[in-house]
Amino acid sequence: MERQSFCFLFVQSTIHQIFSVSKAGPEQVSLKSIKITGAEIIDLRIPTSDQMLGSDPFHKMPDYSSAVLHLKTDSGLKGVSIVFTVGAGTDWICHGIQDLCQLVIGADLESLTESPITLYQRLIDHHQLRWLHDGVFRMAAGAILNAVFDLWAKAVRKPMWKLLVDLEPEFVVDCIDWRNIQDALTPEEALEILQRNRPALGRRQSDMQVQGPKAYCTAGWLGLSDQQILETIQNLQKQGFDSFKLKVGRDSEQDVERIRFMRDAIGPDCNLMVDANQYWGLEEAKRHIKRYLPFGLKWIEEPIARDDVLGYVELAETFKSASFGMACGEHAASPVIFKQLLKSRAIKYCQIDAVRVAGVNDIMAIVLMAAKYEIPICPHGGGIALCNMISHYGMWDQIAVAGHSETQLVEYIDFLQDAVEQPVKIQDGCYVAPTAHGWGLEFHPEFIERHRFPNGEVWKDRAANRKGAAFEVALK
Amino acid sequence: MERQSFCFLFVQSTIHQIFSVSKAGPEQVSLKSIKITGAEIIDLRIPTSDQMLGSDPFHKMPDYSSAVLHLKTDSGLKGVSIVFTVGAGTDWICHGIQDLCQLVIGADLESLTESPITLYQRLIDHHQLRWLHDGVFRMAAGAILNAVFDLWAKAVRKPMWKLLVDLEPEFVVDCIDWRNIQDALTPEEALEILQRNRPALGRRQSDMQVQGPKAYCTAGWLGLSDQQILETIQNLQKQGFDSFKLKVGRDSEQDVERIRFMRDAIGPDCNLMVDANQYWGLEEAKRHIKRYLPFGLKWIEEPIARDDVLGYVELAETFKSASFGMACGEHAASPVIFKQLLKSRAIKYCQIDAVRVAGVNDIMAIVLMAAKYEIPICPHGGGIALCNMISHYGMWDQIAVAGHSETQLVEYIDFLQDAVEQPVKIQDGCYVAPTAHGWGLEFHPEFIERHRFPNGEVWKDRAANRKGAAFEVALK
Questions:
Q1: A201-436: which CATH number, 3.40.50.700, 3.20.20.120, 3.40.50.970, 3.30.365.10?
Q2: What is an annotated GO biological process for this record, any one (chains A, B) (predicted)?
Q3: pLDDT value, residue B98
């Protein structure tokens, strides 16, 4: 009830109006009237390692997990965000989020959204916390920012993509931390990119609501037999997919055989990508990748370390005549790393992750840099509910930043979609445009209760076996 | 008593002997007999922001702090390590160390030291924790590794530098994670570097025991008046210093005036360095640095973001004819970042930090890469007891890796040295070779009790005011 009466105030407002009347008017009062009263941080873990789901050479037995943040308000609305991890370590991030929540509890929503760079800088440039570098710190900061954006989108009754699309170009530019990236993209260039898409915004939005971002899927998991891979491909093709990924990395001979097998199975016209999950050193990567030249691959994903920029530059040069380009970003921890990969054109596909960098603000910077260098945004999906988030970024990019859908592919993995109230949908190989307000990250309450670590039903008898660092698996 | 009788067993052993008899013999039994029985992790914070000590444009009110790890054993020996931070955030690292301790509690010392890469990989490549990236995770892992090395050095009754110097070259090479750095340095090249220094090891060691690594000091803190800076310089010159650093970053006009003032004060023959603490973007850095050309500076420290490798490459090219080179590393979070800065020769001074990367193993990799590219190791000091650690790395580098002392400068800051039982000593502007066993990181017990956060004497009445993220200071 409380929620309905609140929403009524906003039903006819647009985000434009909210900003254009930011000094006065009923909308301002209403955003201002939403106060953050508290936070619940949930260590949510799914024992996916029971089935070896999502394993790769480094992450041999992942338990897909999320630090889930619920920002509570006095309005009945709840701001939700997640930080995906692969099990142990979720508590590290929960600890950080708990600390950072102090910066938003007690604030009203208007004070946080009228200038999102202010909250961003309070977090990322915190005079005592910035020492903690990227990783846990930046991911925890992202959780705060993303939950505030979720609350904002819910308050104005829009899916996240629509909130972003409707922001004035000047406002988007003001969301970005420009300190370290202006050699790659200036605020003026960012503004120009956003403004040149304005005339077609209505048409692009309508088009994308009919058919959302084109998706791709991994069919070649390391643990699967040839027969299982064939079945996976057939199943995906029935859903309209024509782009498939294959995990590689360890045995060069087996990898080449599997690439050949996949190419034969999908035919010459489908997209085929491979993912090495950072398993190789630079020279090792060259040796492996040279053997992939005959198969018309689209991209080589994470052939080397996540932040080896000069390594990527060298790979791009080595394979400049190949059908494929390099792809990475899933583990790139900040806009500074992305800046270098994009400006140097060392990567041909920019794989943003929705929760490794500091929230919407960092993603805005990265997507705009990618647009300048005409490098398609191909977000990393999977995990728990990452696809729910990246569908919004795909929409925003393809409507308002890149402004087209010709080169982008958004990852799709159907794991664990039954955990959320608003599962992502695929139609004809494309995402269906999300319609729920905010990110659409609401988990079923009973799912949360069952999977709370270490005391939920799923864990209580065996949490001790998978407790933190003690749950080990040798790399080889 | 327990400790004395234990030490007696080792008094005549050398680390060589321990390894050469690693399959049998009394020494092996003895290392094996030391079992890690538990860990105490201490959130130690000093309210240095009361006096604005150590502030810079980003870290405006640092409370110098350390996550202190005490690994307890059944032998009476204690393995000690620290992770320095600037206040809030110490608890984040303590949380991580607590988790990782599970990997060493219950182990005997031999099992951890006979192949240090095994422990390193169990930490850094942990199949569920590596997702956490660098920063908190890598720093916490470093705490474990450094405490184990401390225990080892104490068990064999050597200062850390001597333990490192005495390791067989092959053993050092086997301590290193080679996955991502072999394009810059191969294991064979590392071995060759270490072996070529072997003939002069005895002489170099004797020389360095007479006069340790040459030190430099910051005289130009942002908050000081001209008169205070003059007094600081005079005081340092009396101690034999001829190399001085100055903080810059905000007001270009004031910075240039201060550089001129410092140069006049110290004369043309002393080394003068400036430190911008990452405050600038790339183009901004160029504008500032161009104005510094006339002053015969030695280095420009952290002009841009800590991991902007291509930015450093561009700065090196822009200022290739200048008297100065670029220096960074204090905030470089992994050997992969160092690899790029060194291989590209973008930096001329390699400023390792003792606790940001994953312990001795990562430092070995970085120091050896620097030696190959003939880039001097000029470690970052200060904080709490960082100088105690880097004096060992300076010794090891200048005896066994670079094998000379001609180009290196090791930072020295005398803050908080009264907190430790073995304060570093300076003589004729050089460190005095440490003689205490291990790192020499023992804090006075009463200092620890007074400064435990949040319940120590110093904090109990005001911890609430500086609690975590809530202790804010605006950046500008």
A1: 3.20.20.120
A2: carbohydrate catabolic process
A3: 98
